[in-house]
Write a structure and sequence with these properties.
Helix content: under 10%
Radius of gyration: 19 Å
Strand content: over 45%
Oligomer: single chain
Number of strands: 10
Shape: elongated
Structural class: mainly beta
Order of helices and strands: HEHEEEEEEEEE
Length: 191
């Protein structure tokens, strides 16, 4: 948690373009390439994420960036999850089109919507919800974007695909759960 907050407090100069974005996404619990198609064919696991982006180094043709993200999604019949993570990557501009790649890491807290059975000393089971399940998330992503107007205005529509690994999921069964996340969003500068 401390590492995620450090970029907000430790910078030597102000960044020229601070951007915010809002995206809607769908999550599929499969490995690629199946998860790419599954976000359209599987049950909907919708989510929303808000991001604050700052650039490390920016040139006319590209930008090294990092962002802080806060999101929420619902995995149908199983849990609702709160996400807090950061992404770091490179975005290349090709006229109005942008192409990017990124790595990300962070925290996910899953709030179970089903009861879980806890074994008792007498051999019976008791239904219990609990506070939820803390998990680490990490992964990588690629994205396409389109700048609306000139690049200095900073308005951009984007479509990103991320492979997110959720761990530990179930230690004895599936310790590492892959998720394919397809998001569509809008980004603009704060000036």
């Amino acid at each position: 948690m401390i590492c995620l907050g450090l970029p907000f407090f430790l910078h030597a100069q102000s960044f020229p373009h601070k951007s915010v974005s809002l995206a809607l996404f769908n999550n599929a619990t499969l490995l690629p390439p199946a998860s790419i198609v599954a976000v359209f064919t599987q049950p909907i696991h919708p989510g929303i994420v808000a991001s604050y982006e700052f650039g490390w180094k920016e040139k006319s043709y590209g930008k090294w960036f990092q962002n802080a993200n806060l999101g929420f999604f619902s995995h149908r019949y199983v849990y609702r999850a709160l996400l807090l993570y950061t992404q770091a990557g490179y975005r290349r501009s090709l006229g109005h089109l942008t192409v990017e790649g990124s790595l990300h890491a962070g925290y996910m807290h899953a709030f179970l919507i089903t009861d879980r059975l806890v074994p008792q000393d007498d051999g019976t089971y008791k239904a219990k919800k609990g506070f939820g399940k803390p998990q680490f998330i990490g992964g990588a992503g690629v994205g396409l974007g389109y700048n609306l107007g000139n690049r200095e205005l900073g308005r951009r529509i984007f479509l990103n695909y991320d492979l997110r690994l959720q761990m530990p999921f179930v230690k004895s069964y599936v310790p590492l759960l892959p998720n394919g996340v397809l998001s569509l969003g809008f980004q603009t500068h704060l000036n």
